[in-house]
Design goal:
The complex is a heterodimer of chains A (117) and B (112). Chain A is an all-beta fold and 117 residues long. Chain A has no helices and eleven strands. Chain B is an all-beta fold and 112 residues long. Helices cover 0% and strands 63% of the residues of chain B. The N and C termini of chain B lie far apart (41 Å). The chains are: A mainly beta (117), B mainly beta (112). The interface between A and B is medium-sized, with 26 and 27 residues.
């Protein structure tokens, strides 16, 4: 079974440009999360999709960030225009619903490293 | 708000036992997870506690005390490949959904 896949693995862009990150969750996982790790800090929550709906987007830094999950399958996270402080590793994770048979643990992708110059 | 504390770094010897502690403060507690992350790789699930007590999984065990807001991850028979970052993460139920909050991670170095 394929795990969570993210693309690109690394992106280097200039300030003011646009970048779109893609995440393909594990098939059948309704829950999809975006997290970000800035150098030296903890992995921080950005938002949570349940199928195609945004369940919680309280962690999104500002309106330069736009996440979509059309059709409830893969998701994209667009940063436009990118700023220096957006540099970091963006992790996507997916999970099944928590129930009596399932802890609902998150399965993570390897991350997309974004460098804004 | 939430607060999760764990040591930044630890060093241990191959074959030994190491305990990584994690303290937390949160509302709506719905479980505590430990993840392992090697540099440049995805965090991978190690263990889960939602009730007080010890959960054992091979060389790894995790303990939880909800009243004390405390957990530890115990690694036995350390191997060189166990050198990695260990992330403590607390799940809370909020806004109709689950949210996982991470500590900064403990960088474990296993030496010969």
């Amino acid at each position: 079974e394929a795990g969570v896949t993210q693309f690109p693995s690394h992106s280097v862009i200039e300030k003011g440009q646009t970048v779109t990150l893609r995440c393909d969750p594990i098939s059948g996982h309704d829950n999809l999360y975006w997290y970000r790790r800035v150098m030296g800090k903890e992995i921080k929550f950005l938002l949570h999709f349940v199928k195609e709906s945004k369940q919680d987007e309280s962690g999104m830094p500002n309106n330069r960030f736009l996440a979509e999950r059309t059709g409830g399958t893969y998701s994209t996270l667009k940063v436009q225009p990118a700023e220096l402080e957006d540099s970091g590793v963006y992790f996507c994770a997916s999970s099944q619903d928590q129930n009596s048979d399932n802890t609902g643990e998150l399965f993570f992708g390897e991350g997309s490293r974004l460098t804004v110059l | 708000g939430q607060n999760i504390d764990q040591p930044t770094e630890m060093t241990a010897t191959e074959g030994a036992i190491v305990q990584i502690n994690c303290t937390y403060q949160t509302s709506g507690f719905n479980g505590l997870f430990w993840y392992q992350q090697h540099a440049g790789e995805a965090p991978t699930f190690l263990s889960y506690n939602v009730l007080d007590g010890l959960e054992e999984k091979g060389r790894f065990s995790s303990f939880l005390s909800r009243s004390k807001g405390y957990s530890y991850l115990l690694l036995k028979e350390l191997q060189m490949k166990d050198s990695a970052s260990y992330l403590c993460a607390v799940r809370r139920w909020a806004g109709g959904g689950n949210k996982l909050t991470f500590g900064t991670g403990t960088q474990l170095k296993v030496e010969l």
